[in-house]
Design goal:
heterodimer, A: about 250 residues, alpha/beta, 8 helices, B: about 325 residues, globular
Chain lengths: ~250, ~325
């Protein structure tokens, strides 16, 4: 039985018009907490997706006129959310509610950001490399390749306020801001998202994610200087502009 | 329907990578756990288990060596060209144990000049260098990483510059492919380290940053190759295009070269990973190289955009901002 002081949970599911698994995703989401709001963000109101979402039990269905870009549903959903904990899911990846409870539990424990610990199957793929590298540059090598790019992940209301709703559209930037602003970030669970990914779309998204990470690194540079706070080992760059000291033979 | 759902759920269940332990070690561990006080019989070395052919160490597969013999016709023609076109640049700091052998080996290349940039040595390095017909530039203090290279590149007069490291002895026949690549039109010839990464599953931070920088410049084919690693060769014209001062930060030099569309080739593979000395400040060097890459990315972002060359592909940021 849920106590009345239990923090309210908002579950945000951005959906494309081709999300067939949406109904089962919503069904699992409803099992996470007894009272939670489920927000589905889809491209068009007249679409089958919106109807399907309402039928499956979504609390709020947000639909825009224009087709949304990658990850923009997250920002819009987060803006509409009222809960103290926000859980982000994907419409094409049904995850059993038992595994989802872990992420919500972490935020209830006091963590600000709970990421999916899955770091990608192929460590040599450019997307996974950039996720790893970003965590290295943020001095959080313990996070390995965990990133806000990957669902499911949960945020606290405090984290959302610090990061800013609109930054969620570019997940690596939000990730960098979370770590740079001193939020407590952890990773838990291990849910392979690549199982649901369509290879052709993944290749197209790789470029986008690479660019997102470049943007995140620019945030880092803005905060910590052009070397992001890494040592220069006392390079004597002045020696290059001075006259030669020793003569040749 | 129910059947289909179950399958989807199972496919995303948590799967952790399995850690493999060698059979002999595993047995020892099991035995220990079962009864710690029990005296174990000494393990005979010629048991069936140990006679089993060993699996080759992963990630250390030796790549095919592309060397050009100095005595071959091709080698001879390269050497004759070296006499008026090649400058070899060596940055040294306290290398009295290797410098003599290194200089003698390098002279087999018949270069136009050998430039030694000695900085902050407290041993006999400088005296030894003076015994050889080389141009020595000596600095009383340490110049820091890679600055010596840049100074050597500024002073070099040859058409092609070959960069070596003071503590790394490499056969001259293995160095010729780098020089040859530059004679044949490459602006920069880098050491091809990709074969060492073929079979490994975990990549260190430095290699990740190299790979990320190459893929940022849409040169995923360059893989883990970087100007950070020696040996590499470069045309003098490329040095001038990049800017001498930028050579002190090798990843930045690489980013500039790729940005300007210089031709960067993988010349040959020389094992510098496993022969590299493990130094006490190894981790700090990793940080230095990470910082270098950040600097390179910063340089690119100043000239392009925050996203470098990647488009947004249909993201309408105003949607989220309007409703604010």
């Amino acid at each position: 039985m849920a106590s009345p002081i239990e923090p309210k949970l908002s579950i945000i599911i951005p959906a494309r018009s081709d999300s067939r698994a949406l109904a089962s995703v919503i069904r699992q989401a409803r099992l996470v907490r007894p009272r939670s709001e489920i927000i589905v963000v889809c491209n068009s109101a007249k679409d089958r997706t919106a109807r399907r979402a309402r039928k499956a039990g979504a609390t709020k269905v947000i639909a825009g006129e224009a087709s949304l870009g990658h990850d923009e549903g997250r920002s819009i959903g987060a803006k509409a959310a009222n809960g103290d904990i926000l859980l982000f899911l994907a419409a094409d990846l049904p995850v059993p509610s038992g595994l989802l409870k872990e992420y919500v539990g972490k935020v209830e424990e006091g963590w600000d950001v709970a990421l999916n610990a899955y770091s990608g199957a192929n460590r040599k793929h450019c997307v996974n490399v950039s996720k790893f590298l970003l965590n290295q540059l943020l001095r959080r090598p313990d996070l390995e390749g965990a990133s806000l790019t990957v669902v499911p992940h949960a945020l606290s209301r405090h984290a959302l306020n610090v990061i800013g709703t609109e930054q969620l559209s570019v997940p690596p930037v939000a990730h960098a801001l979370a770590v740079l602003n001193g939020l407590s970030v952890t990773s838990c669970g291990y849910i392979m998202t690549s199982a649901a990914q369509k290879p052709r779309r993944a290749e197209r998204n790789a470029e986008l994610i690479m660019g997102d990470h470049a943007e995140a690194i620019s945030q880092l540079i803005m905060r910590n200087g052009p070397r992001a706070g890494f040592t220069d080992f006392e390079r004597d760059r002045g020696a290059l502009t001075l006259a030669v000291e020793g003569g040749g033979e | 329907m129910a059947k289909r759902r179950r399958r989807a759920v199972r496919s995303i269940r948590s799967r952790r990578p399995i850690r493999t332990v060698r059979p002999s070690k595993r047995n020892a561990a099991l035995r220990k756990r079962s009864n710690p006080n029990k005296q174990l019989a000494p393990v005979r070395k010629s048991t069936k288990l140990s006679r089993r052919p060993r699996i080759k160490a992963v990630g250390r597969r030796r790549p095919s060596i592309a060397n050009i013999s100095l005595m071959s016709p091709e080698g001879k023609s390269l050497l004759s060209r070296n006499q008026w076109a090649l400058s070899v640049i060596i940055s040294v700091h306290n290398e009295e144990s290797t410098i003599r052998q290194l200089l003698e080996q390098t002279m087999h290349l018949w270069p136009k000049e050998i430039i030694v940039v000695e900085n902050g040595s407290t041993d006999r390095t400088l005296e030894i260098c003076r015994e050889y017909p080389v141009r020595v530039f000596s600095y009383p203090h340490r110049l820091g990483h890679d600055v010596g290279r840049a100074i050597g590149a500024r002073e070099a007069t040859g058409e092609v510059l070959l960069f070596l490291d003071g503590d790394l002895l490499i056969e001259p026949s293995l160095l010729l492919p780098f020089v040859k690549a530059c004679y044949n039109g490459a602006d920069i010839a880098v050491n091809n380290l990709d074969p060492f990464y073929e079979n490994i599953s975990v990549i260190d931070q430095v290699s990740m940053s190299k790979y990320y920088l190459n893929s940022l410049m849409s040169r995923r084919d360059l893989g883990f190759c970087s100007l950070t690693a020696v040996p590499h060769a470069m045309k003098k014209s490329a040095v001038l295009a990049i800017g001498v001062e930028n050579l002190a930060v090798p990843p930045k030099a690489q980013a500039i070269a790729l940005y300007q569309g210089l031709r960067v080739d993988k010349a040959a593979t020389i094992d510098v990973i496993f022969t590299n000395k493990m130094r006490p400040y190894h981790n700090a060097v990793a940080e230095l190289i990470l910082g270098d890459h950040v600097e390179a990315i910063h340089w690119l972002q100043e000239r392009t955009s925050n996203r470098i060359r990647f488009a947004e592909s249909g993201r309408l940021r105003f949607v989220a901002q309007d409703e604010r």
